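Title: Prediction job returns without error message
Component: structure pipeline
Severity: low
Priority: P3
Assignee: unassigned

Description:
Job completed but the reporter wants confirmation the result is attached to the right record. Sequence as submitted:
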Amino acid sequence: MGHASRPAATQAKGTIVPRVLVVDDDPMVCVAIEVCLQRQGFEVTVADGGEAGMRALESESADFDVMLIDVFMPHMRGFESIRMFHERMPDIPIIAMSGYAFANTERAPDFLRMTIELGATCCLRKPFTPNALLTTVNECLTKPMQSARHSN
């Protein structure tokens, strides 16, 4: 793979366009993220699950700057996806997303924090605002692979 040395962001009319891969089984979440990011000038690729996300990641034209991955999906679970995506492309920041709620939050495991151990750079708890999404994506783009961060 000869593109490891070049930046993933593509050039469009003299400006850099960051490329984002969104992996989520909920089409409404995908559309909301896609519209929000495209309005801010991002190039967005949507995958409807972990397997589709892996195919997008491995395609010839895939050069992503950041990935947003849902933690709970059918078939390939988000935990598995995060681990596999991180192993395949360790230099691409991963934002783990989840809306999973617990009745007893004091004793329940924090699944988003667990994703950090598997390679996620930071986390977003659903539902999140467009501002929280943009802030988290931009932080991953400007400070890739530094300390992990948790965003509510």
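Comment from assignee: result matches the submitted record. The longest helix spans residues 27-39.
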